[in-house]
Amino acid sequence: MKSAGNVRRYLVSSSAAAMALCISAPVRSQTDSVPSPEATPPGTGDIEEIVVTAQRRSEKLQDVPISVTAISPQQIEDLNLVTVKDVQIITPGLTFESGYNYAQPFIRGVGTSNPTPGIESAVATYVDGAYVPRAIAQLTDMFDMADVQVIKGAQGTLWGRNATGGALLYTTADPVLNEYSATGTAEVGNYRHWVGEAVTNVPLADTVALRLAVRGSSQAGYINNVLNGDELGGRGSTSVRGKVKWAATDKFTAVFTGEYYKADDFHNALAERAPAPYCTACLFVPAPPPPVSGFYDVAQPDTAKPFLTTAANGNVHLTYNGDTYDINSVTAYRHDKTSVTVNQGFASFPFFDYGAVNGGTTWGEELQAASKWDGMFNTLVGLSYNHDDSYDTTLLTGAAFAALADVPGGYPYADDDIVTESVAGFAELYVTPIDKLKFTFGGRYTMDDRELTGKENLAANLALAPPGTPMEFTKDAKFYQFTPRVVVAYDLDPVNVYASWNRGFKAGGFNTPTFAPPPVIDPELIDNYEVGAKYVSPDRRLRANLAGFYYNYSDIQVYTVNNAEGGQHLENAAKSTGYGGELDGSYKLASWVNVFGNAAYLHAEYDSYPDASVVYPCPDPNTGTYGPACQQAATEANPNGDPKVGLVQGTADLTGKTPPRAPRFTGSLGFDIHLPLGDSWTGNFSTVARYTTRYDFYPDAGGPLGNDYQPSYTLVNVTGYVEPAHIQSNVLGLTAYKIGFYVNNATDEKIYALRNTSAGFGIADQVLEPRTYGIRLSAAWGS
User: Fold this and answer.
1) Distances (CA, A) of 315 to 56, 244, 386
2) HSE-up of 750 (CA within 13 Å, CB side)?
């Protein structure tokens, strides 16, 4: 671990040196020739040709033998896709939630709930080519984007670290050479919502351009605190991004990015839904308030505080486009921090307040070279390095710990530091033995080294650690894995078909917070088999993509919430299998109307999970009896001598049950209309509806009570705008402007962000926004 700095310096200097050797051609004086990642102009038909980088090179979407959803800037605007969670609206098989303010994407039922420092998400996230390890800092707004790509299914080679579910690729817009332009947007809506956004592009020289983007937003709360009338659930954010592009030669380009993000978010408001005795805090007050019944009501004390998040990152992307090979290097730095106090006891008074501060610093390097040979062979080779210093600091306060307040050191406190160093090499060989037939053989070897250092005060050691636990401890673990990929693809023109096998790997690690040396969580492994077909009609009006898949998933890292252990419980489930199919497409009914949609079917179940962690009620509300879990609970009896009362952690055989976040069916349907409104104006109207069947938040919906699930729902969003068909010369210099509106959750569906049955404390939920609506004005200047 101490050699991390030397390794990092070597990788960065080596990649910089390699790129420097490429700066030898004459300096260019024309505009950038790199193809847009969004789309190229349409051909004789109406459907745009979408270009993606899912295989780490620019390729037509229809030629890529992977199930990919690509989202363009125009779609982001037309459908009002604001946050990273919104991509699920038009992505088959993706479920994206944010309970406890963690980014929790699940693709085909594969993902990670509440990934804390020490364990990353099973769906890898990349921003401008750089890996983002911490889920707490991934819930950002999307603005001034180039594109978003969702790669579905395990990734064995190119995006192979921590990608057992797939990968999310977010790419922000680069500066444009020799172009002066600016855009501005102002938006207001209900719940005192406002957004201000500005983007400007300025050429600094013939070969250098600057792009600045700023966004600020605020929204008041939609959750009513019945104790004091406060509005909770609000959110505010500020983002600033600067990018400089330097086209040093006609073959070499450098893009430098700096970004700062700040947000405060009170979506962590928790509503207690359980009566006594399952509401443990209710046993401590003479006349406990009843559980709140209103969907948007909570009863929580002032000691609960919102999530405060800051993040700063820098990125250097170097590109060399040679005659026979391309080289790409992404060097990235990221520092983020989040603090919060959660009413984890679900009580109407300070009973169990969970204070947390976590974050860290990440350095990363992605270096790759791809050949462009004319023969039957081509190749891609690369090196990936990531060094992450993360921390998770926990402070437990409230009436549940009042007896420990006077212990030297105060309330229970723990500080976990996790250092992760990951190095991987990957390569793919592409063989085209005959025209239109292509084989891909790839492999990645990953080496991960984690070290946990835990420290705690006396109160934490006495109350939450097993007897004899030292107050300081260290533990490390190393993981090594080879993940192959094999693909065969054939172009039948106009249908491209493919079959693939990918092995995915998600590193093991440690559950945090922890108050004792924790067991090592084993890595996840998944084998994903997929067949697919991609079709574009000869008249280019219809695009349809179909994929079928089957996977074997072993050593699944599963979370349950257990406040009796000081936080959450993480364990390896045995294994599961899943199979299903996905269909997405669009059809241009006429030049002014486009219909699009998708559907995904998934059947996933645990093949073997005999000792799953679930929560039991004591007594059973239906029979009034105390089951084995109640008798075995490792707690003292109540003063009246009765057995354990409340909710206790136990085990159950969940073999054959459906894993969390694995809905049987998801689908969406929408349309865009763009047509003239007389001679002077044009109008655009878009709507999309997304439907999902029921799914569980935690294994077996939390246990016998079956509370922790999301009911089926349909989300409908509507947007529209009008703009002048022709802009005349005007004193403001405007080249375009739009007046628009949006309605999100138009049918006012009641949707959960999380439902949680917690051993020791009760049953709670977090809820998402009701119907929101507003108007916006945008304007553009320059080219």
Assistant:
1) 17, 11, 14
2) 9
- Select from 259, 265, 222 the least CA-distant residue to 98: 265
Q: Over range 28-37, report the average pLDDT.
A: 36
Q: Is 549 helix (H, G, I), strand (E, B) or coil?
A: strand
Rounded CA-CA distance 415/394 in Å is 6
Four-point Cα dihedral 50, 52, 55, 59, nearest 10? 50
3-state secondary structure of 5: helix
The per-residue DSSP string of 200-218 comes to: EEEEEETTEEEEEEEEEEE
Q: Where are the beta strands (DSSP E) in 412-471?
A: 413-434, 437-456
Amino acid of residue 127: V
pTM: 0.90
pLDDT in tens, 584-595: 999 999 989 999
Distance separating alpha carbons of residues 760 and 293, to the nearest angstrom? 21
Give the 3-state DSSP-derived string for 515-526, with helices as H, strands as E and coil as C: CCCCCCECCEEE
Q: End-to-end distance of the chain based on CA atoms, in angstroms? A: 51
For residues 498 and 532, the answer to whether their CB atoms sit within 8 Å is yes
418-446 residue pLDDT tens:
999 999 999 999 999 999 999 999 999 99
**What does the block give as tokens for 150?**
């969702």
d(C-alpha 770, C-alpha 755), whole Å = 17
| Other residues' Cβ atoms within 10 Å of the Cβ of residue 200 | 17
pLDDT digits (tens, 9 = 90+) for 231-274: 999 999 999 999 999 999 999 999 999 999 999 988 778 888 88
Q: Can you tell me which residue has the tokens 């049918």?
A: 747
